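Hi there,

I know you've been waiting on this one. I reran it after we fixed the sequence typo, so this is the corrected version. Both the input and the resulting structure follow.
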Amino acid sequence: MSTRVVLITGASSGIGRALAVEAVKRGYSVGLMARSAESLQETAALCSNQIKHSNGTDNLKVFNFIGDVCLENDCRTFIEQSLLNLNRIDVLINNAGISMRGIFVDTDLSVLKRLMDTNFWGAVYCTKYALPQLLQNKGSVIGILQSLDSRDCLRERVIVPVNLRCKDFWRVCDVRTSKPVLMY
């Protein structure tokens, strides 16, 4: 049986980095995407060290891709290059995201566009291009979202509408693929 593969966006720090290291510990090869080359290399080094120090995981691989989920072509290329380098895709973790707190009336539209491009469209692009492999391998899509604290709604916060659109997208994926879509 071939090694299972997980792809993770936003893998250069925080939850993405922790997910990458944990995936390797659990016997997955990893494809990592982030904008920061230096931080992404640090994550890859942590994963490679984990592979070296684990027994029976000589066949695991780490693939890095420097890119921005806001750019459809970067997402397409990440999925294509991951498939070429890792031979399959079993799990896609859409972790890339940005945060912004502010009152809606005071928020510049360019900020809202960047939030939607990253938090919504980045997940849509990666999922769209990975879906044929995920369906073939009976894989899963995981979406990492920020908290949807109801107090934010009361304060007219901007992030809540963006995350609600993301949740709507995951529901559509769930219906169309009949696969569980996990949201955290």
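Quick highlight: The chain has a mean pLDDT of 83.

Best,
R. S.
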